Batch of 3 targets.
Target 1
Amino acid sequence: MAYKDEQLHEEKVFKDPVHRYVHVRDRVIWDLIATPEFQRLRRIKQLGTTYLTFHGAEHSRFNHSLGVYEIVRRIIFNFKDRKHWNEQDRLLCLCAALLHDLGHGPFSHSFEKVFKLDHEHYTQQIIVGDTKVNHVLEKVYPGFANEVADVIAKTHSNKLVVSLISSQIDADRMDYLQRDSYFTGVSYGHFDMERILRVMRPTEDQVVIKSTGMHAVEDYIMSRYQMYWQVYFHPVTRSSEVILTKIFHRVKHLYDKGYIFKLEPTHFISFFKNEENLQDYLKLDEAIVYYYFQMWQEETDEVLQDLCERFINRRLFKYVEFDPNKMMNVWLELIQLFKNIRIDPDYYLVVDSSSDLPYDFYRPGEEGERLPIHLLMPNQELRELSRESDVVEAISGKKRTDHKLYFPLDMLKENKDKETVEKIMAILQIQGDV
Amino acid sequence: MAYKDEQLHEEKVFKDPVHRYVHVRDRVIWDLIATPEFQRLRRIKQLGTTYLTFHGAEHSRFNHSLGVYEIVRRIIFNFKDRKHWNEQDRLLCLCAALLHDLGHGPFSHSFEKVFKLDHEHYTQQIIVGDTKVNHVLEKVYPGFANEVADVIAKTHSNKLVVSLISSQIDADRMDYLQRDSYFTGVSYGHFDMERILRVMRPTEDQVVIKSTGMHAVEDYIMSRYQMYWQVYFHPVTRSSEVILTKIFHRVKHLYDKGYIFKLEPTHFISFFKNEENLQDYLKLDEAIVYYYFQMWQEETDEVLQDLCERFINRRLFKYVEFDPNKMMNVWLELIQLFKNIRIDPDYYLVVDSSSDLPYDFYRPGEEGERLPIHLLMPNQELRELSRESDVVEAISGKKRTDHKLYFPLDMLKENKDKETVEKIMAILQIQGDV
Amino acid sequence: MAYKDEQLHEEKVFKDPVHRYVHVRDRVIWDLIATPEFQRLRRIKQLGTTYLTFHGAEHSRFNHSLGVYEIVRRIIFNFKDRKHWNEQDRLLCLCAALLHDLGHGPFSHSFEKVFKLDHEHYTQQIIVGDTKVNHVLEKVYPGFANEVADVIAKTHSNKLVVSLISSQIDADRMDYLQRDSYFTGVSYGHFDMERILRVMRPTEDQVVIKSTGMHAVEDYIMSRYQMYWQVYFHPVTRSSEVILTKIFHRVKHLYDKGYIFKLEPTHFISFFKNEENLQDYLKLDEAIVYYYFQMWQEETDEVLQDLCERFINRRLFKYVEFDPNKMMNVWLELIQLFKNIRIDPDYYLVVDSSSDLPYDFYRPGEEGERLPIHLLMPNQELRELSRESDVVEAISGKKRTDHKLYFPLDMLKENKDKETVEKIMAILQIQGDV
Amino acid sequence: MAYKDEQLHEEKVFKDPVHRYVHVRDRVIWDLIATPEFQRLRRIKQLGTTYLTFHGAEHSRFNHSLGVYEIVRRIIFNFKDRKHWNEQDRLLCLCAALLHDLGHGPFSHSFEKVFKLDHEHYTQQIIVGDTKVNHVLEKVYPGFANEVADVIAKTHSNKLVVSLISSQIDADRMDYLQRDSYFTGVSYGHFDMERILRVMRPTEDQVVIKSTGMHAVEDYIMSRYQMYWQVYFHPVTRSSEVILTKIFHRVKHLYDKGYIFKLEPTHFISFFKNEENLQDYLKLDEAIVYYYFQMWQEETDEVLQDLCERFINRRLFKYVEFDPNKMMNVWLELIQLFKNIRIDPDYYLVVDSSSDLPYDFYRPGEEGERLPIHLLMPNQELRELSRESDVVEAISGKKRTDHKLYFPLDMLKENKDKETVEKIMAILQIQGDV
C-alpha cells in the first residue's frame, strides 16, 4: 500500500477536553505529530502571556493544532459524497490543518514585532525545508509538502481547500474560540459547532453555509467579538506584552552597543543581526526565553534586570485610557516628566493600541484576501451573511480601537522626587482610576 | 486597621475554569499571591509529564493552589456561626490552603527521588525562611508564619484546621480531582462538591460529613480511584517519568565521574553535592530544566544526549506487564541480553511500579497520620465511612500494584545484532503486545 | 418568634439542573411552595406547546418559579450591607419572585387570547383572594399579601424591589433564558449570570450594573435575542399554537350555537359566558385540557374532531412566509379557493405574526413601564446601556416582525378537487418550499 | 426504491439536550415517530412520579425513546464493515430501539402492579396489532413487525441484535442513566459513552467490550448503582408511588362494591373487569389519570378523596426505616392502633420495599436471560467483566434491600385521640427521625 493511503492498524485517539476525542487513522498524520518540529509546539503557549491574566490559559499550540486538525477531519467527513468535494484532497486538508501554526515561536506577537519576523514565513520554511515534517510529507508523493505549504499560504489553486483552513469561519477560528474559552474559563466563546459543521456545504471555490444554519453562525460571530475584547485584548495581558516587547528591545539595544552580558544572549544573536536561519528559529521555545529572563534578573543593566524581574514575577505596568487625538500634548509632557525623574520613557511609558480584528471580520471584501461568509439559500442562490443577518449587519461597519498608556505605578511611588511624581499622578488620574 | 483584618477596597476575582471564580478579599492573600515564590508555581506543571499523555494537562501548580484556597474559603464560609468553628482561624486556614504546595519543584516526583529531596521540607523552608512569603505572613502577627507551616506539616495543635488542609477528603484532593479531570478532559473526576461542602460539619478535632451526604462522598472516592488508575498512573506518563529519572541519574553520574559538559549543569551542582540551599531550590523551575535538556541534546555522552532528545521530542519507552514474582529470571536474562548488544540496562531496561495510594485511602488507621472519613449520623454519633457504605467497604481492603517493564523499542529495532534482538523480542512479547 | 422571621430547623434544598441547588431557609417560602395553588404550576408547562418542536422542553412553571426565587435569593445575598438595600424587604422580594407567575393557566398564550383573559390578573387574584397562598402570606403580617401583589404588579412604591422582579434584566428573564436553553438543549441562552449577580448594585429606585460587567450584560441580551427567534418564535411551535387557538374558538362557537357535545365542556362554560371565577380558573391545568382534547376526537363536529386529533397526534399545519403588504390579494384569493373546496378558511388558513419583543427590549423608554438598563460608571454616574455598548446600540432600534401563513397540507393533498388544489399549491409555492 | 431503503430527501434532526442531536435518515423511522401510538409517549413521564422529588424530572418516554434510537444508530454506525455485523439488520435494530418502550402506560409501575398488567405485553400488542405503527412496519416487508417484536421480546434468533437492545450495557440503560441524570440535575449518571461506543465490538451472539474500555464500563456501572439508590429508589418518590397505588386500589374496591361515583371511572372499568383491550389501553395517558384524580377530590368517599388530594397537591406520606425481621410485631401493633383511631391501615400504613436491581446487575448468570458483560482481551479471548474489574467484582455479590414504612403524619397529628397517637408516634420515633 502506498504511504499515502496507509492506515494505522487501529485508530488512535487523543483525549481532548474541547472536542472530546481527536481521531487519527492516517499514518501520515500520526508520523507528523511525532516529529520534533510538531512536538516543539508543546513548548509554546497558544495565548502567549494571557495566562498572567487568566490563569487557566496555559494551553499550548500543540493542543490547538490537534484541535484544528480534528475539526477539519469532521468537516470532511460530512463532505463525503457531496458534489464539488474530491476525496483526493482529504490528506491535503488534514495536513494543512495540522501544520498551519507550525512556524509560531515563543511569544510570537512581541518577538516578531521586535525582530521583524513572520511566523507564517517560518511555517512555510519548516514544511518545505530540510525537516522531519518535510520528509514525512514528501513520502506521500514528491511535491506534496509544497502543496500543503501553498494551502496554508492561501496560494493553492484549490480555493475550496484553502477556505477550509483560512476563511472567516474556518477550522482555525472555530477551534481557538472554543479552546481559549475552555481554558480561560470565560463564558463567552460558545456556539453550536456541531450544527455549523452540518450546514457547511462545499462549492466550487469555497465552503458555504446552508441558510438554515444562519443563527449558529451569528452566535459564532458574537462569540468571536466577545472573545476579542474580553480575552485577547485584555488590558492586563497587553501590559505583559508591553514589558515583553521592551525586554527584547533592551537586549538588542544592549547587544548593539556592546554591553557585556553575564549571560550572553546566544540564542538571539543571529536575530539581532538579521542572520537567523531555520535551525536558529527552531531552537527557540518558551523555556529558552524564560531561562534567559530568569538569568537576566541578575544583569547589571537596571532596565533589563527590572523588566525581566517584572515579567517573571508578574509585576506588571498599570494603565490609563489614552485618547491619541486629545492626549498627544499630555503624552509629550509626561515623557519630559519621566525623564526629569530618571525613568526612561522609552521603556516605561508606552502606548499600546488594539483594534480592528473583530470588526474587520464583518466587513468582507475590503481586504483582498478575506472571503465573506456566504449563505446557501433554499433557491440555491448564495447571499453574503450580513445581508441576511440583522445582528451581523449591525456590527459590520464598526471599527473599534482601544488605546492605553502603560507605566510602572510602583516605580513612580518609590521615586524620591515626590513633587514631580505628584504632577505625573495628577495628569494620569484625570484619565480615570489608576 | 491591623494588617490581619485589612480587606481589599473591592473584592478581587480570578476567573477559574473549575470553580468559576476565585474570590479574594483579604489583603494578606492578595499579597501572598503577588510574591515571587508563589508566582514561581506558574512555571511548574501540576501533573509533571502527564501532558505527554493527555495533551490538555498543561496546567500549573499556581492554578491548583488558587483552587485549594477557594475551596477552603467556601468551606469556612459555610462554617460561620457553627459550633466548634472559631472565626479567628479563618486566615490561618486560607494561608495554609494557598501555600500548601509552595515547595514543589519542577517534575518533583522524579527530581526528589533522584536527589533525595522532599518538597514538603521546602514548603516549610519557604514559609519560615527569609522570603517574601514569610514577610507577608509575619505582618499578620509575629509567629503567624510558623503557625501556617505547622498546619501544613500537620503538627499544629488545632486538629480541625489541620483536617481542612490534609485529610482523606480535604480541599487539596477535591481541587486536584476536579482540576485534573477538567484539563485532561477525562470523564472521571466529577462529584458533587457543592453538596459535600454543604454537609461538612466542624467538630472539635476534625471535619465530618453529615450522613445524608454519604453518597456524594462515595462518588468522590470512586472518582479518586478512577483518576489514579486512568490518569495519574497512566503507563505512558510513567514512561516519560522513567526517562526523566534516568536523565537526572545520568547527569549526576557524569558529573561525579568528571565528564566535561558543553553546558555545565550549574543549577544542579549543589544538588549533586547535597549542598543545596533554599535559594538554589527556588531558582529551579521547569523552564530551567527544559533549557538544560534542550542543550544536552548536543552533549557527546550518548546516553545523556539520547535520553534528553527522547524527552524533548516525546520518543518514549514502550512497556510490557511485569510480574516480579514470576519474572525475576526473565529480567536477569534480559539485562544480560541488553548488555550483549550494548544497550545499557541501567538506563534502558527499567521496572516501574505504581501502587497503593487509592487503596490506602480506604484503609484508614494503618498509617498513623491518616484520618478516616467520619459520618455524622442523625443521632449525632460518628461512624467511619466504610461501615456505612457498601461501595467504600468493598474497595477498602484491596491493595493494588502495577509493575511495568520499560525499554526503547526503536533502539532494539535499529540494533544490528538481529539475532539477540529477536531473542529479546520473543521474551518481551510473551508478556503481551509491545 | 414571629412567623415572619421563622427559619426552618435546617435549610432545605431542591436539586435544580439549572442553578444546581435552590435553597430555602424561610418557613414562609417553604409553606408557599406546599400550597395547592403553587403545586398546580407543576401541571402547566413553562413553554406551552414548544415541546412539540423541542422535545426536551417539557418543564413546568413550577420549575421556573423556583428558579426565579433562587436568583432573587442570590442577588439579595450579595446586597447585604450595601447602601440603599433594606434587609427588611428580603421576604417581600422572595415571595414576589416565587409567586410572580402564579396566575398562569394551561397554554396561557392561546387560552388568554381566545377568552380575553390575563394571567397577571389571576396572579393578583390568587395572592389577595381566599386561597392557601394568601393565608400563608397574611401570617407574615396583615397586608403583606397586598404588598407582594403590588410588587408583582409593579405598583409598589419601592421601585428597587420592583426592579428586581420586573425589569430589562430581572430574575425572571435570567431564569427562563437559562432554563429554556437547558431543557430544549439549544446552545443559545448562556451567559455569565454569576458575574451579572456580582456586578448588580442597588440604588434608590432600581438595580444597576457596575460598568465592568457590561460585556456579561451584552451576552445576556444577545442570548435573549437568539432565544426569541430560535426557540420562542419557532414556526413549528406557532403552528401548534394556531391549532390550539382554533380548537378553543371552535368549542366556543359550537357551544354558542347550541351544538350537543358527547363530552360537555364543563370546565370551560363559565369562560364562554365570561362568568368565570377564581375557583373555575384554578381548576384548569394542562391535564384537564388534554382530557377534553382527547375526548373531543370523537365528537361529530368534523372541525373540532380534526383539530383535536391534530393537536394530540402532532399533525401540524405547514406554513409559508407571508408578507402582509404584498399578499393581501393572494390571501383573499386563497380564502375563496379554500371555500370552494370546502375547507373552512376560518380554521384552516391562518396568518400568525410574531414580533417586537426582543427589539423592544433595546429601546427602553417607549413603553412607560420598561426601565432601561443602567450602568454604574467608575465616576458613579449612571449611563444607559446602549450608550456604552456598540452591540446593544446596534440592535436597539430594529423592530422585527415575522408573518407566516399556516394551512393543512395533508388536507389539501387529500381533497378531491385536484384542480383547485393545484391552484392553491401554485400560489403557496411561490412563497417558498412548503 | 423499496420503502425499506427509502431515505429522507434530507436528514432530519431533533435537538436533544442529552445527545445534542438525534439524526433520522430512514423514511420508516420518520413515519414511526409520526404515529399516534408513538406520539402518545409524550404524555407519559419517563420517571413517573419522580418529578415530585426532583422537580426537573418532567421528561417523557418520547424523549427517552428517541435517545435509545440515537444510541443504537451510533453503535451501528461504528459497526460498519466489522466482522459479524450484517448491515441488513440495521433497520431491525433501529425500529426495535425506537419502539422498545411503546407499551408503557401512565405511572406503569403502580398501575401494572394493581391491575396485573405488563407493559412489555402491550409493546408486543401495539407492534403486531392493528395499529399505525404496525402498518408502517409491515411496509418494510411482510413479517417485519413480528421480527421487531421478537427482538424486543428477546426471542429473536439473532442474539447480536437482541443484545444491542437488551443486555447489561444496552442502549436503553445508557440513555436513561444520562437522561435521568440530566433532567434531575444530579451529579451521578455520567460516564464516557462515546468511549464505550468506540470499544463495542459485535461478535456472533452478543456485543462485547474491548478490554481497553473496561474503566469506562466500571464508571457506567457505578453510575447505575448511584442512580438507583439516589434517584430511582428515592424514599420520597416511593411515598408518592404508595399513594398512587392506593388510589387505584381504592377505586377498584369502590367500583367492585357498587359505590356511586360522581365521575364514573369510565376509562378504567375494563381494567377492573380484566376485560381491557388494546384500544382501552392506548387511550390511557397521564392527562387522563390526572383528570380523574382531580375530579375525585370531590367524591364523597373520604379515602379516595383524601388520597387524590394528597397526590395532586403533593401532601405525601412520611416514612421510617422498617426492618421486616425485627418489626413484624411492631407493625401488627401499629395496624391495631391505626384501626383504633379509625385510620384505615390498608391505605395509610404501608410497607414499601426496594431492592435487587442494581446488584442483580453484577451477578450475571443467575437469571437465565441476563447476559453478563464480556471483555474482549488483547488475545481475543472473552472474559466476564467482574473477573477483570476489582470494583465490579467488589459489588457483584451484594444484594441490597431497603424497606420503609409509610404513613400520613399530618393525619396522625390532627387525630383527636391524642393518647393513641402518642403511642403510635413513640413506636415510630424509635425508628428514627420522622
Target 2
Amino acid sequence: MSTERTEISTLGEFGLIEHLTKNIELQNASSVLGVGDDAAVIDHFGKQTVITTDLLVEGVHFDLLYTPLRHLGYKSVIVNLSDIYAMNATPTQITLSIGISNRFSVEALDEFYEGVYAACDKYAVDLVGGDTTSSQKGLIISVTAIGEVTPDKYVKRSTAQKGDLLCVSGYLGAAYVGLLFLEREKKIYIESPGVQPDLEGESYVIGRMLKPEARKDIIDFFAASDVVPTAMMDISDGLSSEILHICRQSQLGCILYEEKIPIAEEMKKAAFKFEIDPTACALSGGEDYELIFTIPQSEYDKLVLNEEISVVGYMTGPEEGVYIITKGGGKHAITAQGWNHLAQ
Amino acid sequence: MSTERTEISTLGEFGLIEHLTKNIELQNASSVLGVGDDAAVIDHFGKQTVITTDLLVEGVHFDLLYTPLRHLGYKSVIVNLSDIYAMNATPTQITLSIGISNRFSVEALDEFYEGVYAACDKYAVDLVGGDTTSSQKGLIISVTAIGEVTPDKYVKRSTAQKGDLLCVSGYLGAAYVGLLFLEREKKIYIESPGVQPDLEGESYVIGRMLKPEARKDIIDFFAASDVVPTAMMDISDGLSSEILHICRQSQLGCILYEEKIPIAEEMKKAAFKFEIDPTACALSGGEDYELIFTIPQSEYDKLVLNEEISVVGYMTGPEEGVYIITKGGGKHAITAQGWNHLAQ
C-alpha cells in the first residue's frame, strides 16, 4: 500500500468516478453499456433477470479497525453474488454505490475497489453502474447484483416439500469464530495499543470472516448433474435462522441432526479457545455464505458424489415442528438466534 | 400522521420487512418474483434491461427538518426513474434499501414507504426487493431502478451530433430556489423556534424541491412521435453541468441562448426575493429532474407541437467550445457549477 495521500476533493465527483472505473473491461456480451451514463443496459436472450441488493454500514456491518479495505470491497460483492447463486442463477452484473466521509483518501478507495474488481474478475461479473457520494459519518456501501437464470429454473425458499432432504454446502460457523478473535484483538488493541495482535494459527476462521466466497461451484454442480433444488437460500444469518425461513415459507417442519452439521476442525479448535460450542456457532453465527437447500430423496445419489455437500436433515409436515436432534439424542425446538442488526 | 410510536425492535428485522411490504401488488407481468426471497426475478421478452442506482444520505442529500418523510420516499424513487427515462427507457422495477437509526419509529417508516408506493403507483413500477438495516447515524436510502427499452433505442450522453438542436423539458432552476426558502426558514426556526415558517406563496418552488416528478410524458411523446434523441440525460446537477457532460462525452461544443432557457414566472419572482439571477439558478441549481436532449434539426417540426419542450441552443464542433449567449448579447464560456457533494 502506498503512503501517498490524494484528497478526494482534488478529483471532484466525476473525476473520482472516472478514476475508480477507468480500468473496467466488460466481460459479458450482455453488458451493452456500463459505467458513464445515467443507467446501464443489459441485454437478455430468453433469460430471466435476477436482482438483489445489500446495504452495508460501517460500525454496523463491518469494523475498519480490523477489516482491510481490499477485503471489504471483495466481501461487499460476494455477499450479493451469494444471493444470486441462492436463486440457482448466475450473476452477470453489479452496481455499487458508496458514501464516504473525507477521512478516506483516494488510495484507500483504490484499495476498496481493488477488492471489488478482484471479486468481479473471479466470478466473471461486470460492474455496470453506481453512485459515489459523501457521508457525514463512516463508510456506506450499497451493492445491487443482477443475474440470469434459465426461465423457471430459479429456486425460491417457499417450495420445499415434505420428505425432502435438507442439505448445506461447505462448513458452518467459522466466520463467527473469526469475528470473536478479531473483536478480542480489537479490545486488547484499544486497551494497550502497543500490543501486537495474536491471530497466529487462526487464519482459517479469520479468512472465513474477512474474505468469504460465494458458492458458484455448487450451482455449477447442480447444472452439470441436472439437479434443481426444491428450495434454496444462502446462509448469512446462521443455520437456525435460515432453516426457520425455509420451514415458515414452505409451511413445513424439519428435523436437523447436530452430528451432521459440517464443522471444520480448525473452527472446532478455535471455538474451544473461547469455550463456546461449535454447534452453537454454526446454528447462530452469521456470515458463512454457504447454501442451504432441499432436494427430493430420489436425488440423493447425485449429491453423494459432491464432498462439498452435507445432508443435515429432512423436511417434515408443519405439525411436526422444527427440531434439532442433538448428539446426545435430545430433541430441541430450533429458535431464531441469527444476527439481527436492528435489535442491537 | 398518527401520534402512536411502535419501536422497530418490537417487530424485528423480518417483521419490519413484512410490515413494510405486505401490501405490495406487483403491476408488471415481468415481475415474476418480488420481495421475500434472496433476489427478485424479472422476465424480459426481447427487451433490454436498464438499471440505475442512487444513494441518498441524511445531512448530505436531504434535511429531515423540512423534508416530510412521505415526500422523501416519493423523491427517492423519482430521482431513479428520472435516470431510466433519461435512457429513453421505461422503468419497470425498483429495489430499495434503507439504513435507519433507532430514532425512527415504525410510523415514521410507514410515512416514508407511503411516498415510495405512491411513486411506484403513479409510474407503474414494482418494488421487487431491498435490504433494511440499521445505521449508526441518520437515514440512508439506496434505490436501484430497472427499466426496459426496445433493443438499440436507448439513448446515451455521448452520441450528440454537430448541428443538433439542444432541448430541455419543463422549467429549470425552481428546485434550487425552493431549497433557499427551506434553508432560510430552517435558520430562522433554529434561532427562534417559536416563529412559524413563512413559505406563503412559494408552493411552486418548494414543491419542485420536495416533490419532483420524472418526465415519463416526454418519453411517451418521443415514442408517439417516432423521435429518438441523439443524446439525452436528466438534469440533476444544473443545466451547465449537464451540458458539459454531453459536450465532453460527445466531443462537441455548443451554443446555449440565455433567453431560451425556460424559467417559470413563480420561480423568477421567488429568485428576486433572494436577489439572485434566475438564469444562474437554472444553470447551477440542482434537482430539477427535467430532461436535456439533442435532436437533428430535421426533427424540429415534431417538437414544436410539445409545449413542454424548449429548444435552448445547438451543438457545434469541439473547437468552438461551450458557450452561453446572454440576453445582452455577451458570449461567456459555460463552466461547471453544479452541485458537487464531495467538495462540501
Target 3
Amino acid sequence: MKILVTGGAGFLGSRLIRALLDGKGPMPRVDKVVSADLAACPVKDARVESRVGSIADPLFVAAAVDADVDVIYHLAAVLSGQSEGEFDIGMQINVDATRALLEACRHLAKPPRLIFTSSLAVFGGPMPEVVPEDLVLMPQSSYGAEKAIGELLVGEYTRKGFVDGIVCRLPTISVRPGKPNSAASSFVSGIIREPLAGVPSECPVPVDTRLWISSPDLAVKNLVRAGALDGARLGLRRTLNLPGICVTAAEMLDSLERLGGKPARALVSLTDVPRIAAIVCSWPGAFDVSRPLALGFEADQSFDSIVKQYMEGLATA
Amino acid sequence: MKILVTGGAGFLGSRLIRALLDGKGPMPRVDKVVSADLAACPVKDARVESRVGSIADPLFVAAAVDADVDVIYHLAAVLSGQSEGEFDIGMQINVDATRALLEACRHLAKPPRLIFTSSLAVFGGPMPEVVPEDLVLMPQSSYGAEKAIGELLVGEYTRKGFVDGIVCRLPTISVRPGKPNSAASSFVSGIIREPLAGVPSECPVPVDTRLWISSPDLAVKNLVRAGALDGARLGLRRTLNLPGICVTAAEMLDSLERLGGKPARALVSLTDVPRIAAIVCSWPGAFDVSRPLALGFEADQSFDSIVKQYMEGLATA
C-alpha cells in the first residue's frame, strides 16, 4: 500500500502519517508514504519520503502523484482566515490545486482512492438545528465556497471513474497544540491551549455559539477509516460529515475551569470580533451523523474527554 | 442601460436580445447590447454590437466586458450531451470561461448585475417529488457538475461584492425551433417539433419520465425580469429555480396528438436510449417555486399552450 498525503508536514497531516504507519487501523499494511508539502514531513520513518514544493505548482502536483499510488489524502489548503483576506491565493490553492491533483490522477491505470478533507464552512444561511445530509451548500466565506467547489470536482471525477473519491467534512479540530493559525476557528483551540499554558486568550464569538468539534486523535482515526472504506457502501453520496460533538463556547470554558482551574478560566476574555463571528456563526452547530456512525466512524465522548486528551499529550510530550 | 449577452447568437440569446430591445419588460431603456459569441448575433438592430470570438479565450472575455456594462447575461455554455462526451471542453467553457467572466467584472468601478443561467441538472440522486430550494446539489452529469461549480463561483463573487449575481436555473426549454442540439434533453423539443414537420422522432426515455418545462417566450421573459430585479429582495439565496410546468413524456405526446393529430403522434417511436435516460431521469420533475412566483416570475399555463405558441410561431415565420 502506497499513500500520498498533501499537507503531510502540517499538524493533521503528520499525525495522519504516524497513524497510517502504526498499522493499528483498518488500512492494509503501508509500505510507503509520500508527503507533499512546503516543508519536509517531521515524521522520522524510513517509509516516509518528503517531496517539498508548492501545491500551487501543477508540475509539483503531477510529480507528487506516483503511478502506483493507492490512496491519496488531500489535506493541503489555505485556511479560512487567509482565504477570506487573500482571495486569489485561496482560489489557487483550494480550487486550482485540487483540480490539478485530480487531473494528475485521471490518467493513472488504477484510479486511486482520494480523500478530500472539506469543512462545515460549506454550509451557511438558514439551516435547521441539526443539519441533514441533503441540505444545500450555501457558503458564507471564500474558504467554504472553495471547499464546496472542491467537493463538486471530487464528486464529478469520481462519477467519471477518474478517481475513487470520498469527501470528509471535518469538524473543527480542538485542541490543536502549537500556535494560533490563520483559520477563523483558531480560537476554538486557543481558548483552551493558551490558558492551560498560563497565557491569556480571547473568545471572539458570543459564548452561546454552538461549535461542532472533534479531537485531533479521532479526526485522524476517522480519516484512516475513510481511506480503507469500501466505496460501494456510500452509493451516490460520496460526502460524509464526520462525527463530532456539539458544544457551545460557554461549555468549552466550563470544561476549561473544571479541568484547568479557575485561574485558567480567568485568562479567557470575551471580546466580540465581528470579522471572526461573521464566519464562525454561519457554520452549523450539529449534524445528523447516523450514516457515518453506521459506517464505523466515531465521535468523541465529551469535551471534557477532549481536554483531558490534550492535557495528557502535554504531559507526555 | 448597456447589456452584454454571452451566447448572444444562440437560440435563447438572440430571443433575449430581441426582448431586451423591445422595451416592454421591467428593464430600463436599453441603449446598447453587446453580443459575445462564436458567430454574429442575428438580431438586426443598430443598438446591437456583435463581438465574435471564443468564450474559452480569457482575452476575448475581458474584451467583451466594457467598463460601463450594467447587466451581463452569461448564457454561453457547452450543453449536456457534449459536456458528458468531451469532458475537457465542458470544463473549459462551463467552468473556466465563467470564472474568466467573473474576473473581468471584478475590477470594474460598478459591479454589474450578472445573470448566470444554470440548469436542473445540478440535482440528482434521491430527491422528493417536489424539489425545495434548500436541497443539496448532487449532479449526475458533467454538465450539472460544471453548472453547480459556476453557481458557487457566482455566489462567492457576489458575496465578495465583485458582481451583483443572480443564478437562474432554467427549466428544459420546449419547443425549440430548428435542429436537434447536443443537449441530452434535445428530444424534449424534438418529439413535438419533428412530427409537426412530418419528420419521425424518437423519445429516448420512459414515457412516465417527468419533465420540468418552460416555453422559450416565458424563459426569456423571466430572464429579463431577473436582470431588473432588486437584489435586496433575494437575501442570501441568490439562486432561483425559474418556474416551469411538470409534464410527463406521455402527456407531451397526448398534447401532440390533440393539436397535431394522430398522424403526427404516430411519427414518434419509443426507443429507450440508456445514455440519454441516465442523464435526464436523474433530473427533478418539479420544484417548489413559491418564492420566484412571489417575486413576479411566471410559468406557462399548460403544455397545450406551449405547443400552440410553437405552432403559431411556425405560422407567422
